[in-house]
């Protein structure tokens, strides 16, 4: 389902895959920024809803159109105030922010980062200059 998307916790690291997010009692986060699982749930949900949009609105089976899922990495770095798409791991990565009440994992951020992957798979725009501006603007749409 949805290409087998998985979500990992980087535990404030800045490289690698991290630890697969699992749960012993099937209670996934509590909706607050203080609960580590909440960021994972939000990122995972955003990826699922974006996949569904690609499928229903665009007739596209995933980011690259091949039915394979990207994966999400949450809790990147210390006080990292951003999120990004990374072609080298085919993944979305989310920081927790600095002084934020919640990680940067809202559905609009997830969709934006996944769409950078879609842009890379379809248009291969360099992320610099005018083509970088087009890449960023397309991901905002």
Concise structural overview:
The chain is α/β, with parallel strands linked by helices. It contains three helices and five strands; from the N terminus they run ββαβββαα. It has one domain: Roll (Elastase, domain 1), CATH 3.10.170.
Task: Give the arrangement of secondary structure elements.
Elements: E1 7-9, E2 19-20, H1 36-58, E3 71-76, E4 83-86, E5 91-95, H2 107-122, H3 129-140
Helix pairs in contact: 1-2, 2-3
Walkthrough of the structure:
It is a single chain. It is built from three helices and five strands. Helices cover 36% and strands 14% of the residues. The two termini are 25 Å apart. The model has no long low-confidence stretch (mean pLDDT 94). It has helices at 36-58, 107-122, 129-140; strands spanning 7-9, 19-20, 71-76, 83-86, 91-95. The protein has a single domain (2-140), classed as Elastase, domain 1. It has 141 residues and is of the alpha/beta class. The chain has a five-stranded mixed beta sheet, covered by helices on one side.
What descriptive keywords fit this protein?
single chain; 141 residues; alpha/beta; Elastase, domain 1
Parts with pLDDT < 50 across at least 5 consecutive residues: none
What kind of sheet is the major sheet? 5 strands, mixed
Order of strands, main sheet, comes to 2-1-3-5-4
Count up the domains: 1
Topology, number of strands: 5
CATH class: Alpha Beta
Q: Encode the helix/strand succession as letters.
A: EEHEEEHH
| Distance from first to last alpha carbon | 25 Å
Radius of gyration: 15 Å
**Could you tell me the strand content as a percent range?**
5-15%
Q: Give the mean pLDDT.
A: 94
- Assign the CATH topology: Elastase, domain 1
Number of separate helices: 3
């Amino acid at each position: 389902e949805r290409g087998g998307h998985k979500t990992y916790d980087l535990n404030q690291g800045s490289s690698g895959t991290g630890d697969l997010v699992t749960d012993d009692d099937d209670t996934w986060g509590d909706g607050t920024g203080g609960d580590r699982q909440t960021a994972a749930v939000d990122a995972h949900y955003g990826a699922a809803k974006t996949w569904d949009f690609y499928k229903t609105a665009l007739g596209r089976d995933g980011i690259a159109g091949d039915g394979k899922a990207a994966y999400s990495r949450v809790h990147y770095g210390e006080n990292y105030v951003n999120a990004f798409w990374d072609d080298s791991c085919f993944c979305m990565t989310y920081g927790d922010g600095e002084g934020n009440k919640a990680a940067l994992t809202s559905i609009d951020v997830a969709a934006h980062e996944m769409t950078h992957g879609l842009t890379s798979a379809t248009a291969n725009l360099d992320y610099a200059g005018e083509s970088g501006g087009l890449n960023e603007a397309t991901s905002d749409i």
